[in-house]
Amino acid sequence: MSVPGPGPRRVPGPPEPGAAVPERRTDYAGAVYGSMLAASVIAASSVQEPHPRLSLVLLLVVTGLVFWAAHVYAHVAGQREAGQDVTFRQVRRVGRHEWPIVEAAALPALAVLVSPSLGAGENAWLALAVAVCQQVAWATLGAHRAGVRPRQVVAEGAVNLVLGLVIVAAKVAVGH
User: Fold this and answer.
1) DSSP-based three-state secondary structure for 48
2) Where are the beta strands (DSSP E) in the chain?
3) Is the pLDDT of residue 9 over 70?
4) Average of pLDDT values for 154-174?
5) Rounded to an integer, what distance in angstroms lies between the CA atom of residue 147 and that of residue 162?
6) What is the pLDDT of residues 127-143, one digit of tens each?
7) Residue 21: CB partners within 8 Å, gap ≥ 6?
8) Which residues pair with 11 in a beta bridge?
9) Buried b (16+ CB within 10 A) or exposed e, 9-30
């Protein structure tokens, strides 16, 4: 059984004009970005609806989809502005590359849904913790897989933990 969540994608880097086709690499940036986005959505949410958990899950998914579409559009528009023709195949490739932004909402959304059965009630703290933890995990794994020195792997994790804690502090300060 697989657990839903953002996953790294094997994507080709953009080829330079006249250069050989680059080696395929794994890119964790979308998973890190999407996790930070999910944490921000949770921190900023104050859902006072008849069904607050469902509202937050929908907010996470819709926000992920909108930001995914914005990233795809920005990339395609950038190519077009640079004078390059854009094919549907390229749009699909960019869409797949950016999909971890959407996937990053899956585990926090699941945490929102199961939090009452775990005794966490209707609050979103469990989902926020999940989003921050996956952000740190994807950043750390990405650095490790990139082959950087262990000290830099730790630094990547620490920077992302600090960024996540800034989001948590914002939620506390706003009083949600």
Assistant:
1) coil
2) 9-12, 24-27
3) no
4) 94
5) 23
6) 999 999 999 999 999 99
7) 12, 15
8) 25
9) bebeeeeeeeeeeeeeeebbbb
CA distance 27 to 11: 7
Mean pLDDT of 105-117: 91
Residue found by looking up tokens 């996790």 in the block: 35
Closest to 61 (Cα-Cα) out of 46, 42, 44 = 42
Report whether 26 contacts 141 (CB < 8 A): no
- Three-state SS annotation for 82-125: CCCCCCHHHHHHHHHHHCHHHHCCHHHHHHHHHHHHHCCCCCCH
Of 21-25, 110-114, 133-137, 138-142, least confident by mean pLDDT is 21-25
Rounded to 5 degrees, φ, ψ at 11 are: -135, 145
Residue 45 CA to residue 13 CA, distance in Å, equals 36
Token pair of 142 as six digits: 């990405």
Most confident of 6-10, 26-30, 123-127, 166-170: 166-170
Distance CA 84, CA 66 (A): 25
Q: Which two tokens stand for residue 24?
A: 């395929």
Three-state secondary-structure class, residue 31 = helix
